[in-house]
């Protein structure tokens, strides 16, 4: 049984139980590799075409795609907010339709994301990836039921403030192995959290604390 430790990475690797974020243009999946697919909010500098939405829907249905995203809101980069909101809502709808959790890119948009979570009341789990914010922002998100994942750079005070069952880990674009990142998180918490990360990741993706196998 291989444990899932990396909830979000852009570095696919054969036989590594991680969730690799891919675009909708198509890719050759590694056997046994898990994926998420989405249209990044930075793409909203232009209009997203109906064909791109159809591609997203088609890719998201694949069995090896276990999550939707990354998607979300970025107030510092990308297109107009209304266009980002429309794109994000399409991902939320897809997440609900396919019953797959949502991996969110959130830059200065915590209030918007929490507001949408409250108003839409989704049944699927949401995760803000690569969280580096303050404890107060983390509390806003976790109080809304939104999980947080931590990568190479993180706020130690924030990590300590987050409920243990809502902590996940990721490599994202980092070249550090996920084991080293989890080691850094563990050093702050004061004990090894590898098993905790494995259980939380499995629960987030599949709704159980049984370590996922490939």
The average pLDDT score comes to 92
- Rg from Cα: 16 Å
Number of DSSP helical runs:
7
Sheet having the most strands: 8 strands, parallel
Strand-pairing-aware structural class: alpha/beta
Strand sequence of the main sheet, in spatial order?
1-2-3-4-5-6-7-8
Strand content: 15-25%
Q: Low-confidence parts, pLDDT < 50 over ≥5 residues?
A: none
Gap from first CA to last CA: 7 Å
Order of helices and strands: EEEHEHEHEHEHEHH
Helix content class: 25-40%
The total of beta strands comes to 8
Q: Which term fits the overall shape? A: globular
What attributes does this structure have?
214 residues; alpha/beta
Report on the structure:
The structure is a single chain. The chain has 214 residues and is α/β, with parallel strands linked by helices. It has 7 helices and 8 strands; from the N terminus they run E-E-E-H-E-H-E-H-E-H-E-H-E-H-H. An 8-stranded parallel beta sheet has the order 1-2-3-4-5-6-7-8, with helices on both faces. The longest helix has 18 residues, at 81-98. It is globular. The mean pLDDT is 92.
Write the layout of secondary structure elements.
Layout: E1 6-9, E2 18-22, E3 34-37, H1 50-60, E4 65-74, H2 81-98, E5 102-107, H3 110-120, E6 126-128, H4 135-143, E7 146-150, H5 156-161, E8 167-169, H6 178-189, H7 194-206
Parallel strand pairs: 1-2, 2-3, 3-4, 4-5, 5-6, 6-7, 7-8
């Amino acid at each position: 049984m291989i444990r899932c430790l990396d909830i979000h990475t852009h570095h696919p690797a054969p036989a590594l139980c991680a969730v690799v974020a891919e675009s909708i243009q198509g890719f050759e999946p590694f056997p046994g590799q898990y994926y998420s697919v989405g249209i990044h909010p930075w793409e909203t500098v232009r209009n997203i075409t109906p064909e791109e939405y159809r591609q997203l829907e088609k890719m998201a249905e694949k069995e090896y795609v276990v999550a939707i995203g990354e998607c979300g809101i970025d107030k510092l980069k990308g297109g107009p907010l209304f266009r980002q909101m429309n794109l994000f809502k399409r991902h939320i709808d897809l997440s609900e339709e396919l019953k797959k959790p949502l991996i969110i890119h959130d830059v200065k948009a915590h209030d918007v994301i929490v507001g949408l979570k409250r108003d839409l009341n989704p049944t699927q789990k949401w995760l803000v990836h690569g969280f580096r914010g303050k404890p107060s922002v983390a509390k806003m998100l976790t109080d809304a039921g939104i999980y947080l994942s931590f990568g190479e750079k993180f706020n130690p005070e924030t990590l300590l403030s987050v409920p243990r069952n809502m902590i996940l880990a990721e490599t994202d674009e980092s070249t550090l192995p996920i084991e080293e990142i989890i080691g850094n998180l563990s050093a702050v918490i004061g004990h090894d959290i590898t098993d905790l990360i494995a259980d939380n990741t499995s629960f987030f993706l599949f709704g159980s604390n049984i370590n996922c196998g490939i």
